[in-house]
Recover the amino acids of this structure.
């Protein structure tokens, strides 16, 4: 069956919208500060291990999905490397609760770094099995 939508931006936008519209982000507000102050892979992975089970499972599945897009042959076609994916997707995983534009802007870089670390380092090999 041929998909009726030929524009890949449509499903990507719908996915981002779904994550963004969650009542609470995948990474709960109480872990936000730890995420943006995270100093390395080990700390980032530890934060993920502390997530509520459903958040952890969905985040693992989501990161596994993003990891498929950072393969060289895909990046050559899409131009969406791990940095670009982290920039576009970080606001959907982490949500800054400040109204101050300066804080939001400064934290955006840290949010991107955290998500980029997950894309690079999170072992999502068991993600598919978690949903059986």
């Amino acid at each position: 069956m041929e998909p009726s939508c030929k524009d890949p931006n449509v499903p990507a936008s719908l996915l981002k919208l779904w994550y963004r519209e969650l009542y609470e982000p995948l990474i709960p507000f109480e872990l936000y500060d730890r995420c943006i102050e995270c100093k390395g892979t080990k700390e980032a992975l530890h934060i993920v291990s502390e997530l509520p089970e459903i958040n952890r499972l969905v985040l693992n599945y989501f990161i596994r999905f993003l990891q498929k897009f950072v393969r060289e042959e895909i990046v050559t076609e899409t131009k969406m490397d791990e940095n670009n994916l982290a920039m576009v997707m970080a606001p959907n995983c982490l949500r800054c609760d400040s109204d101050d534009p300066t804080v939001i802007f400064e934290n955006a870089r840290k949010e991107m770094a955290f998500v980029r670390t997950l894309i690079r380092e999170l072992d999502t090999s068991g993600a598919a099995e978690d949903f059986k």
